[in-house]
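Hi V.,

You were right to ask for the full record rather than a summary. Here it is.
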Amino acid sequence: MIVAGIGCRKGVSVEAVMAALDEAARQHKVNIDFIATAPLKADEPALLEAATIRNMAFVVVAQADFEQAASRTLTRSAVSEAHSGSPSLSEASALAALGPGSRLIAPRMVINEITVAIATSGDQE
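Predicted structure:
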């Protein structure tokens, strides 16, 4: 399984989310199975809309899982830490969505006002 963890600025457009997903999939040469984010971003309509358009699940990870995954992120952003409590909202979301055996393919990517982190459940390279 491949998940895209997403963080974004408030009010981001669905077009920007889809473009960021496309770019992350292209750069990492993966097919994204679903989108995940933190509870803090659960009410961003563009995230759900992008998942719906792409016929993907949209998962808001549990706060406890998000907090546990924070220690496994590769990126350390003071801004993310201040806003979300995690050094990387997108990375922690991706890792939390796939559980303790998951791993990041690479550090998060910043694409305009969106961060995307790709994680795998470990059954794919």
